[in-house]
Amino acid sequence: MRFSSLKHLAASVSAIAPEAHIVVFGSSSALCTHPNLPEVTNSYEQTLDADFILDPWDESLGNLLSETLGKDSGFFEHYKYYADIVRPAAFDNFPPDFRDRLVPLEGCPRVFALDPHYMAVAKLFAGRPKASGCWLFSWPPTGWIKPRCASCYGTRRWRRNGS
User: Fold this and answer.
1) What angle do CA 60, 106, 31 make, to 5 degrees?
2) Is residue 97 part of a domain?
3) How many domains would you assign to the chain?
4) For 76-88, what is each residue's pLDDT tens digit?
């Protein structure tokens, strides 16, 4: 995934959902903060999708976006990247104050990305095997993710319901 591809996808989602705010999360969300990330790490060569959540959620619009821009769409067949439209239940994996730290996607009004530190911790908390090979682990050498900072997000600010 390249920054230009993310912007193209986000603009396409935004055009189909002109009333919604759009939250980008997952590995591609880091491009909003660091557009040159694919030049620094090769982990983005394998990323073909960007995860988007409509806010507020609209089931029929979410389905339309998945059909139009998703993995099984003509869009993917043509451009070789796609939008993964995710339900807002994913917000449950984000810290309560995540909206206060959203990063705007340059040139795409109403499109915001999860703060990279929050995304790093969310990937670790999700505990998916795929996360161990993600962009998170290529970041400490660049200094973009501060492990101590990400650790603080995970221990102090993120705990929900006593967990």
Assistant:
1) 85
2) yes
3) 1
4) 999 999 999 999 9
